[in-house]
Amino acid sequence: MSSLFYRILESKDLSKAGDLFSVDDSVIVSEFQQIISKIQEISSAPEFLSCHNDQSLVEIIVTRIISAVRETNSIQQHARCLVDLLQSCLAHSLRPGSRGDPPHAKMASDIMSCLFLNYNKKQVMVLAIPVAVKFLHKGNKDLSRNMSSYLSLAAIENADLLALHVQPILDSVISGNYSLSRVLPAIFSVDRQLIKNHVMTLVSILPNCSDSDSLALLTLFDLVAKDSPALLEPSIPQLCECLQQQSLASATLQVLQDVAAALPHCLHDHMTVFKNTATNFPKTTVSVVQLLAAVCLSSVEKSLEILNYIMDVIASVEAEKHSLVLKEVSNITGLYPSLLNVSLINQISGLEEGANSATKFIIEDLKNEYNLRRVDRSFEKLSVWDKNGSKTGVTIVSVKGSNKNLNKYTKRDNEAEKTSDQKSSKFSEQKNPPNGRVGSSSNIPCTDLSLPGSAHSSIIQTSSVSTSYPHSSIISYTQNSTSIGNVRAD
User: Fold this and answer.
1) Measured between alpha carbons, how far is 145 from 136 in angstroms, rounded to an integer?
2) What phi, psi does 291 have (nearest 5°)?
3) Checking phi first, is residue 139 left (phi over 0); if not, alpha (psi -120 to 50) or beta?
4) Reduced to 3 states, what is the DSSP secondary structure of residue 15?
5) Among positive and negative, which fits the CA dihedral 131, 133, 135, 138?
6) Measured between alpha carbons, how far is 354 from 164 in angstroms, rounded to an integer?
7) 189-206 as b/e, with b when 16 or more CB fall inside 10 Å?
8) CB distance 436 to 486 below 8 Å
9) Closest CA to 418 of 487, 489, 490, 466
10) ∠ CA(149), CA(150), CA(151), 5° rounding?
11) Which of 253, 313, 322 is nearest to 287 (CA)?
12) Residue 223 in contact with residue 189, Cβ under 8 Å?
């Protein structure tokens, strides 16, 4: 040990302690273990708690050796000695007194600061974390809060090490050290079961937490919702209370969306609360729509209700976010096609002006889906009943059509096929009727059918057409057109 350090530590001469900062850092780290041993000897003496001279001396020396370790970047070589000194502090009372923190609490705080600033060094954290978590339950709130910050740093790259101590960490959070909740999401990714056992208790402390601590817990609950949403079902009323705070509303809606994805029924009774959230905090409207769309999918009635709500509020949403809202419309109508009607199409068409490409794409997709379903329904009506109640039909074959939906449509009845040969001679006599008509001169009103895509030519066959039938049909298709028209029956 250098002569200066030796004289100061042996004589406990506080007046000379300032001279330690003139000693070269390399000299200090070379004698590090001897210095630490001497500090432990002084701080463990019974008179240390009442001797202000010794307390000040130790405080100065600890500050100097920590500075030397930092400047020489030698923490990995000296971490064990520092952790041993930290461990020795646990043997003493750390509870604040009338004069503030006891000396061992101050020393522990300085050492932990040095250790945890090196949170990215695994070897250091392996030594420090097991000892550091013991300070959470030593009755010193300031030290516990500092410990929360240090462990939050450690959790960035050492969640696996913290997971080994999840029970004392949970106990500390539940007992009031709410800032420590920031490490729980990282631990959950490593060890889920213990945290899942305390989910209801953690939800119950939300009203007592600051906004930052509440957001940390909501981040945890979002992970729980993705993994085991049923665990949050009993706590939904408490979570809904967070929707009354603007700072927590968005994070809470995300948690509820993940619950709704698996358990939509458990949110049915809270739909009014969700709508009120969008009213109170307009920036949450898109999130509210996404949540309501997930909740309503369990029934067509609720889906219709939410579709109407969406069309009422979409005007209040920023234009660049219309695509997010319309995506939910697409999801709902995809599950319940009957809700995609002309009224809805007309409403969403009004959003096209000034819309971005994503919004226009969804609107066009919804229109195409609506037209395709309308065509499918129209083709179902092309079967014609004869006097005896049997059907006749048409076969339409696309020869060079570019749209696969026009490739082939067939409506043919078995009885019509049986009689087609008998009637073919009469049909051939009327092969080229004037004005595109077959049979008698009586007219049935035309039906216009729209099909997506385009086609170049079609072959059309008419089955079971005869003057003995009260009705017959023919369909004409115009080359390079996207509509089938002139459906007539005579």
Assistant:
1) 8
2) -65, -50
3) left
4) helix
5) negative
6) 56
7) ebebeebeebbeebbebb
8) yes
9) 466
10) 95
11) 253
12) yes
Residues in the chain: 490
| C-alpha distances in Å from residue 140, one per residue of 90, 107, 150, 463 | 12, 13, 15, 93
Q: Is the pLDDT of residue 480 over 50?
A: no
Residue 146 has which token pair?
Answer: 């500092």
How far is the C-alpha of 476 from the C-alpha of 478, rounded, in Å?
7
Composition of the chain by helix, strand, coil, percent to 5:
70, 10, 25
| HSE of 290, CA atoms in CB hemisphere, 13 A | 20
Q: What is the DSSP letter of 282?
A: G
The structure tokens 């809805």 sit at 344
**Token pair 């085991």 is at which residue?**
228
For 145-257, list the strands marked E by DSSP: none
> Of 120, 44, 114, nearest to 78 (Cα)?
114
Q: How do residues 242-288 score in pLDDT, each as one tens digit?
A: 999 999 999 999 999 999 999 999 999 999 999 999 999 999 999 99
* Contact partners, residue 65, CB within 8 Å, separation at least 6: 28, 32, 35, 36
Q: Is the pLDDT of residue 23 over 90?
A: no
Instruction: Show the tokens assigned to 463.
Output: 């089955």
CA proximity to 29, closest of 55, 56, 57, 67: 67
Q: How many helices (H) and strands (E) are present in the chain, helices listed first?
A: 22, 8
State the pLDDT at residue 449: 42
| Share of residues in the chain with pLDDT > 90 (%) | 63
Residue labelled with tokens 């030397």: 68
pLDDT tens digit string along 158-215? 999 999 999 999 999 999 999 999 999 999 999 899 999 999 999 999 999 999 999 9
Q: Is 394 strand, coil or helix?
A: strand
Cα separation, 255 vs 119, whole angstroms: 30
Q: How far is CA 52 from the centre of its chain?
A: 55
Axis-axis angle for helices 342-349, 357-380 (nearest 10): 160
Residues forming a β-bridge with 395: 410, 461
Q: What is the dihedral of CA 460, 466, 469, 473, to 10 degrees?
A: 20
Task: Supply the angle between the helices 75-89 and 52-72 in degrees, to the nearest 10.
Answer: 160
